[in-house]
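Handout, section 4.2: multi-component inputs.
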Amino acid sequence: MHSVHRLLFRLHHRHRYRWAAFLAVALMVLLLRKLGHYAPEAHGTLRLLYAIGSGMMLIAPFFEWFVDDREWLCYRLWGVDLAEVLRRKSRVLLHQQGLLALAVPACWTALHPASWHVDLLRLAALALIALAAAPVIGLAVYPVVRRWLRQTPMVTGFIGGGAQLLALGLALLSYLQPLLAPLLLVLCRHYGRQMFTRSARALDQMELPVEHP
Amino acid sequence: MSMIALEVQGCSRRFRSRKGTVQALQDVTFQVPEGACCGLLGPNGAGKSTLIRILANVLKPDVGRISVLGEPLRWGRHAYKRQVGFMLEDLALMERLTGREQLELAARLYGLSPEQATVTIEALVAPFEVATALDRWIETYSHGMRRQLAFLLALLHRPRLLVLDEPFEAMDAQAIEAAITLLQARHREGATLLISSHCLDKLERLCDHLVVLHRGRVRFAGSVADCRDHLPAAETLEAAYLRWLREG
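Output:
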């Protein structure tokens, strides 16, 4: 018998194919290394590109709490407390994305050993902030994104993309100035607590999308 | 005096779309006493699935009042489902889990201990074909197996009220027999059942009450005995049902 955490982890892991994200991080770092070899003066820009790419990968899953209507319907029919499910999912996603976050500085420092002392702190700050900000911003926009998802894919992309950029901005800020990381962590934690209840309430009020009979 | 497990009063629901408006339910009123097994009958488009979605609180009625197990149904409140098992037309299954994992997740979220969950799952699935495929991903299941799993999920937490939409659809003869036996056992233990189905012969075996819907309105609501009393001599329930539909 598996724990709820493990079952939810499997549900997400199978859907998202984490190994593909690890592979993408490794390929990206190899590509940037090659570019850096031909243009050593661009090292700072390449590092920033790496931060943006890996930041996006860390953040994206937090915008899809319940991947499809069927999962939402399961929780609704079982009558479970959605805020509690969101909290559990948050822990599952943090566990899952945390593994990827470990790979982000590790890959970079392994392939760019000369600059590890400069990069490690900044990339660690980026990973921390991305993981702290993503659940909060993801939860804040999720019920709205979900509603629009059934209406216009373009609008969904706009809302989701805008929120991702916001989260990314926060992450980059931490990359450029690691000292801001603790402050952002505290802010995210403060706002995150209310988000679970607020998003769960919005999801509780949703109607099942029904085909015209 | 017997308690009322389910009460629907003046419930209406209309769907609007670009193609026009459909009145799916109109002033639906009926009661199901506690411990009864009630069949919900009606032709395609009669409003059975809409009514069951409304009872599951995933669709809002335009007007009307509903109470489940003595408590009024409130939009956005779902805690009552800890005592109610639902199987909807829209199957609530997580495609990327195995059948066993889906049952385990539901059992654990219902608050069953790991030991209780294991024993309950093993006992429930044993008579069904889906037992042989429990370790496969649900997305590889046939339609019949999905319906078996959805049926078992509704029964997992031993609910006081079971609301099932077309539970026998796409099931093979063996699974239907197992499902009927399971439902009869739950009924004997005191659970209240509301079963929507087109299979009148199965409902006749199971049900002591009937609600007949036609074009969104209640055509008959009452006990099977009452229904038989009002039939002309030698007319079967099935013949009467077909006659109602023709007259309707």
